[in-house]
Amino acid sequence: MITKKAFTLAEILITLGIIGIIAALTIPNLIYEYRKKSLETGLVRFYSTINQAFKLSAAENGDERQWTDFGEDSCSFYKKYLAPYLKAEYECGYYIIAEGQKPNKVNQNMFVGIYFPSGDMAVLSYSRVFTYTNQKKYYKAYTALMSGSEISNSMPYGKELFVFERTISRDPSNERGGIIPFDSFYPYTETQQLEQCKNTGSRGCVALISRNGWKIPNNYPFKI
Q: How far apart are CA 167 and CA 173, in angstroms?
């Protein structure tokens, strides 16, 4: 008689249980690492893309410091100086989302929604501030607060929303032009930058990431 060896039902169940425990411990960490890497890549991509557009525009339209001052009219500024140099869809205005209702479009030239082929989006507000996100849930469904206006504790700055500013809006004499991470103009120490990110949300978070080589530091105060 030939005897075949096989696992018993109990052994199989124990093995499956061990696999389940390992998966429960490792999958959340893998998801977090994926989200973190995706955000790091997106921030660099956005920063590079926008600054390249500013450089191309300056080559054709002259020194950024001499560009027409449209005040807070982001729509006119974007159409003239950035739209021709960016491969992105855009629309002027913003959306308000009322609970249980579809987004309601508000025609307001202070805000421009920019939609990149990568799926990233940004909002230009007051011709000075860019708010970036790689969260598709905001795509064509953002509020005025998301657009870099007054800081709201209800908005996930530093988690899903990341703020950049035009260099000359911080220093009109700066020859560099383009954009910089919000608050990176100031000579904060690493500890001070961490506090800026932790305590004000929109302030300092991108600057904290950029000074770490565009990698989210281990002591980053928010869960991505």
A: 9
- pLDDT in single tens digits along all 224 residues of the chain: 555 566 676 766 777 777 767 766 676 776 778 889 999 999 999 999 999 999 999 999 999 999 999 999 999 999 999 999 999 999 998 887 766 777 788 888 999 999 999 999 999 999 999 999 998 888 777 765 565 444 455 678 888 899 999 999 888 888 889 999 998 888 888 899 998 888 866 677 999 999 999 999 999 998 88
State which amino acid sits at residue 176: R
DSSP notation for 171-212: -TT-SS-SEEETTTTS---HHHHHHHHHHHSSSSHHHHHHTT
Residue 164 belongs to what H/E stretch? strand 162-166
Q: Would the pTM of this model clear 0.90, i.e. be above it?
A: no
d(CA 184, CA 166): 11
DSSP state of 147: G
Q: Provide the phi-psi class of 17: left if phi over 0, else alpha when psi is between -120 and 50, else beta.
A: alpha
Q: Do you know the residue count of the chain? A: 224
